[in-house]
Write a structure and sequence with these properties.
This protein has ten helices and five strands. The chain has 297 residues and is an alpha+beta fold. Strand 4, helix 10 and strand 5 form a beta-alpha-beta unit. The radius of gyration is 27 Å and the shape is elongated. It starts with 16 loop residues before the first helix and ends with a strand.
Length: 297
């Protein structure tokens, strides 16, 4: 089962504080990140203005600059970085904290110092942008089952918890289910592992076709799949279970193998409880002769 008990299992990556910060900020919605960024930029600019031209706080600008690029992308980073450079030059002058009008600061030096600031800003933005793309790519690879293209167990728990938080009056019911490919070992023994892999891909494709893009889908074991989605009521949940079972069964029949599928599903108040009941429902479906489905509350 994706969940070990009736309680939601914490799945946050237990890394360093910096790694946890990367995970948290990468999951921020753009609207929420924008609000935080406005407050952060305003705080740094206010501090810079209050300290005067002789006290440098240039390093503090790296925090909102990196945060902007990380959360909103390179274009947003370049725009905010350019605006930040202009504002700091206006507030502090072109000569590293001294007035640009001071006779001791030649124009060439002032231009050089401004150019160095711009170069540093662009370098940080490009570096953070490249790191974010690499981070997203590696995280996606770590959360995807390479054979079927569905999520793996870890990503499924994360996405299921997200759906649990997103329940709303239109779709208040959290439907959770498990699918087991019947006679999978027989397919492998009679036709080889390539046929078994093909059966898994057929089942995954049918499961994906029967659900929405935002639903949580995963291959959580050798021949076991899981799904979690929001529906309007219990009646709709039962119809969706029937649809999923029919589509996966049809896909396996199309493959012309001995494989069928059993499905068990439930809708409870917590994810852990839902999957515990779904596991019992799956057992009941397999005990009834396989190739069928059960929905329990």
């Amino acid at each position: 089962m994706p969940f070990a008990s009736n309680e939601d299992v914490p799945v946050a990556y237990a890394g360093s504080p910096l790694e946890r910060a990367f995970e948290w900020t990468s999951a921020l919605r753009a609207s929420r990140a924008s609000v935080l960024l406005v407050l952060l930029w305003a705080g740094v600019l206010a501090l810079d203005a209050s300290t005067g031209r002789l006290v440098s706080v240039s390093s503090l600008y790296l925090l909102p600059l990196r945060f902007t690029t990380w959360c909103l992308g390179r274009v947003a980073g370049l725009l905010s970085g350019g605006a930040g450079v202009i504002l700091t030059l206006v507030m502090n002058g072109f000569g590293d904290g001294l007035s640009a009008q001071a006779s001791s600061i030649p124009v060439t030096v002032a231009v050089w110092n401004a150019g160095m600031r711009i170069f540093a800003v662009v370098f940080v933005i490009l570096f953070v942008g490249a790191f974010r793309r690499t981070f997203d790519r590696e995280r996606a690879v770590a959360r995807v089952d390479p054979l079927t293209g569905l999520g793996n167990r870890r990503s499924f728990v994360i996405e299921s918890r997200r759906l649990s938080r997103e329940r709303n009056p239109d779709n208040p019911v959290l439907l959770c289910g498990l699918i087991d490919i019947d006679n999978f070992k027989q397919v492998n023994d009679l036709h080889g592992h390539a046929a078994g892999d093909e059966a898994l891909r057929f089942a995954a494709g049918a499961l994906r076709a029967a659900t929405r893009q935002d639903d949580a889908l995963a291959r959580i074991g050798g021949d076991e799949f899981a799904f979690c989605l929001l529906v309007a009521n219990e009646h709709v949940a039962k119809k969706k279970c029937q649809e999923i079972h029919e589509r996966v069964s049809a896909a396996l029949t199309k493959q012309r193998s001995e494989a069928t599928c059993s499905l068990g599903a439930s809708a409870q108040n917590t994810l852990g409880a839902a999957f515990c009941v779904a596991d019992d429902a799956l057992y009941a479906a397999k005990s009834a002769g396989k190739g069928t489905w059960r929905f329990q509350v």
